[in-house]
Amino acid sequence: MAENSATFSDEIGFDDTTVSTNQFEKYKGVKGQTDRISIVYPKVRRAKVNYIDGVGYVLANDYTIAKYGQPSQRFATIVLQYRTDRNGKLQQPLNESSFGFKFWIFGPKKYEVLRTTNDEFPLDKHDLMVNCTEEQYQQMTISPCKEAAWTLKEEFKKYVKAQVDTLAPYLEQQLGQTLTAEQIKEKLGESDSSAAPVGDASLNADDVLQSL
After folding, report:
1. CB count, 10 Å around CB of 134?
2. Pairwise CA distance, residues 40 & 98, whole Å
3. 176, 64 in Cβ contact below 8 A?
4. Which residues are CB-contacts of 191 (< 8 A; sequence separation ≥ 6)?
5. Domain ranges of the chain
6. How many CA atoms, within 13 angstroms, populate the side-chain half-sphere of residue 145?
7. Would you give the distance in Å from CA 86 to the centre of its chain?
8. What is the pTM of this model?
């Protein structure tokens, strides 16, 4: 897994068609609905993060750990979500408009489920059927399909690769913000003398991540 820093900003024109307004959408399951998805990025990006109320997830550093406690692990990858009915059945005919691309952010528990699945059903060759049983904490059952539908045609493979190449540079920043102590204080409106309870803000986030 490459550890190069992501590009957090660049310049584009108003006629640029490589970036859509929904490009940074995150995958979320909907209760009672079965989705068919495929993990199309060859690696999983991992980071240690602190959750800070009023700021959000921040990539852990000495300051965040000292003030907010031990960080949690957070994982991110890119998934292809198919157009399906509520039971996960593919809409036909299958073409490029049948695919949507999203970031999938999850915690250690879900990573272990995916890793176990991958042992028997390699995730680059098998789609996943995902049934969401609870939305707030994204509780879901995950089962492999017999194939990855997007791999059945060469034109699909080329299209998917192009989309993944576009999204990949932005993967790391989905895990958390890179902020200094001064930037965090500024976002919170704190002065250097302000004090906040150590660890309180990260405990609830830890609980959430462990459930994902």
Report:
1. 11
2. 15
3. no
4. 185
5. 34-181
6. 22
7. 22
8. 0.81
| The pLDDT value given to residue 83 | 96
Name the nearest CA neighbour of 64 among 88, 48, 42, 46: 48
| Nearest CA-CA partner of 177 in 31, 28, 52, 36 | 52
- Two tokens at 112? 């272990």
Q: Whats the size of the chain, residue-wise?
A: 212
- H helix runs in the chain, sequence order: 62-68, 108-120, 154-167, 181-188, 200-211
Tens-digit pLDDT profile for residues 29-55: 999 999 999 999 999 999 999 999 999
Q: Which whole-number Å values give the CA distances from 126 to 16, 37, 71, 122, in the listed order?
A: 33, 9, 32, 6
**Integer Cα distance of 177 and 39 in angstroms:** 24
Alpha-carbon span 6 to 167, nearest angstrom: 11
